[in-house]
Amino acid sequence: MEVEWASAPNSLPSWKKADGKLSITCYTAGDALMLIGRGLTQSDKTSETLEPRFTEMAAMLDVSRNAVYTLATLKTFLCQLAMMGYTACYLYMEDTYELPGYPYFGYRRGRYSVEEQKEIDRFAQSVGIELVPCIQTLAHLRTAIRWSYMQPMRDTVDNLKVGHPETEALVEAMIAHFSKTFQSRRIHLGMDEAVSLGTGRYLRENGYRDHREILMNHLHTVCRLCEKYGLQPMIWDDMLFRDRTPLMDYYGNSDPVSEQDAACYPPGLTFVYWDYYHDTQEEYEAQIRRRGCLKTAFAGGVWKWGGWVPNLTKSFQDSQAAAEACYSLGVQHILVTLWGDDGEETPLATVLPGMALYGLLRYGSAAPGQTDAYCRLFSDAPLAAYTLMEKLNTIPGIPQENLEALIPHKLLLYGDMASELFQPSLTSAPATLAAYYEALAPQFAAFAQNTRCESLQRILKMYQCLSQVLSIRCNASAALHDAVTQQSQQQSLAAATDLLIEMKAQVEALHELTVEVWSQERKGQGMEILDLRLGGVAARCRALCKRIELFTEGRIDALSELEESFLPYQGILSLDGHTPGREAYGEIVTANTLCHQFSV
C-alpha cells in the first residue's frame, strides 16, 4: 500500500487500485483508515474521490445498561468505526465512570477508571476518532441516586434536585472531570426524559413550580459551567419539544423555533433531535423543520435494544430515511445510538451491518452488497448471517420487516409457561411455532461453521441454542395447558415433565454460551442480571416439574396456575388489543409484583 499525505486540510481523500496495489491520498489518520476500508470493500470500483455529505458521523455506545465494554472491545470497535468513515464516538455513561471525590458514583457498576478513560481517549485520537463524553446532568441517574450521599441532591428516584448547592457541585465535578480526561472540547449533557422533574422532594421543599422554569434554570446553570471549563455543550432536546405540543408529544406538530424563541436558550448550545421510530423521509423532515433556527444534530440508531437480537431491517429503512432528510435540510451532525435498554442482551458485534450502512451513507448511497462487504471484512461472514438473527422475531404472523420492533423471542424466553401471558396471543398453533424455531437452529449452526471469526461463532452458537430453547418452550407450554382440558391428564403431564426437563438442560447450555459471549465483549459487572434471568427460567422448569409431581402424588389438590382461562394480552404496549409489543423483563416475567419501588 502507498500513502500520500495531503498538504491542505480541505483536500478530498481518494484511493485507487492498480496491479493489486492500493494507493491512498488523505490529510488525517482517520481518513487513511476510511480509505483502506473503502478500497478493501468496493469491489466494483478501481478508484474514488470522496466528498462527505455530513461533517460528523458518530457512534454512541451505551455503557450504562449493565454492560460496560472492555478496553479491548472499545479499541476494536473504534478501529472498525474509522475504517467505515466515522469521525467520532460518544460514550454514554450515566454513572459508569470514576468521578474523583465521589467514591460511590458507579460503585460495582464496572465504571471506567480515570486511567481507562484517558487510555481509550488516547487510542481513539490515534485512529482519528474524537471521543466525546455523553453523560447525564439531570435525569437517568437512578443507579447513582440509590446511595445515601446522594439524598440531598435527589428530587425523584431518577432526577437530581435542581437548585441545591450539592447538585451544582456534583454537576460541576462531572464537567470539570471530562475537561481534563478527554481531549474533546465537546460534551453531551443528556437532560432527556426528565418528565417527573420537580414532583418529588423538590416539590415538598419548594412548592409547585412549572417544570419548564426548573429545566431552564438548570440548563443555564450547567451551560455556564461548560463555558467555565471550555466545553461546548449539547443536550437531547425532547424536554424542550414536548412542551411545544398540547399532550407533551415529542414527535407532535408545532411551529418552527423562531429567533425570538431561541434567544431564551444558552448561546452555543447544540440540540440533539433523537428519533429511531419513523419510517419515511417526510416524517423526519417534518420534525427537523420544527427545530427552526436551532443548532441541530440528529441521533438515529441501530436497533440493538430491548431483546437478544438486532432489528436490522427497521434500522436500515429508518436510517436511510433519516439520513436523506438530514442531507436535504442541511443537518451536518449525525449520531448513531446503540442503546442497551433492559439488560443489554444483544451483543455489540451484531450491529456491524447497521454501522456499515451509516458509514456508507456519509459518502452517498448504501447498497446491500457494500454492507455485505464490510461484514465479510470484519467478521468473515456475509450480511445474511446477521439478518438471520432477526428471524427469532419475525415468526409466522409478524411482518418480515418488523417495523413495530416486536420481540416475541423475549416474551417466550422469559414469559412463564404455566401462568402464560403471551403464547396464545402470539400463535394459535404452538406446534407450528415450535417447528419454526427448530428450523432456525441448523441455519445458525451453518453460518457458525463457515466463519473463521471466533467471536461471531460464539454468538451464532448462542442463537442456535436460543432457537432450540424457544422450540421446546412452545411445546412445553402447550403440553402443560393441554393437561387441563384433556382426559388423559396424567399422560399429558408426563409429557410436559419430559419437555420441562429437556428445556432446563437447554437453558443451562444457553446460559453457558451467554457467559462466553458476554465475557468476550464486556466487563463482568452486570452479567449477573442475565444470570438471574436465565437461572430463573431454569428454576421455573424445576419448580413446575415438582408441582406436577406433588399433584400426581395427591399431595396438592390442583395446579391452579394452569386452570385460569387465557385472555388476549392487553398490556399498555400491546398493538391491537392482543399482539404484545416491546415489553420489558419486569412486565414479561410475571403478572405479579417483582419488586416494590418508591418514587420519592
From TrEMBL:
GO biological process, one term: carbohydrate metabolic process
Start and end residues of each Glycoside Hydrolase 20C C-terminal domain: 385-571
InterPro entries attached to this UniProt entry: GH, Glyco_H_20C_C, Glyco_hydro_20_cat, HEXDC-like
MF-aspect GO terms: beta-N-acetylhexosaminidase activity
Keywords tagged on the record: Hydrolase
Residues covered by the Glycoside hydrolase family 20 catalytic domain: 109-244
Superkingdom as given in the UniProt entry: Bacteria
Family indicated by similarity: Belongs to the glycosyl hydrolase 20 family.
This protein's name: Beta-N-acetylhexosaminidase
Native organism: Candidatus Allofournierella pullicola
Organism placement in taxonomy: Bacteria, Bacillati, Bacillota, Clostridia, Eubacteriales
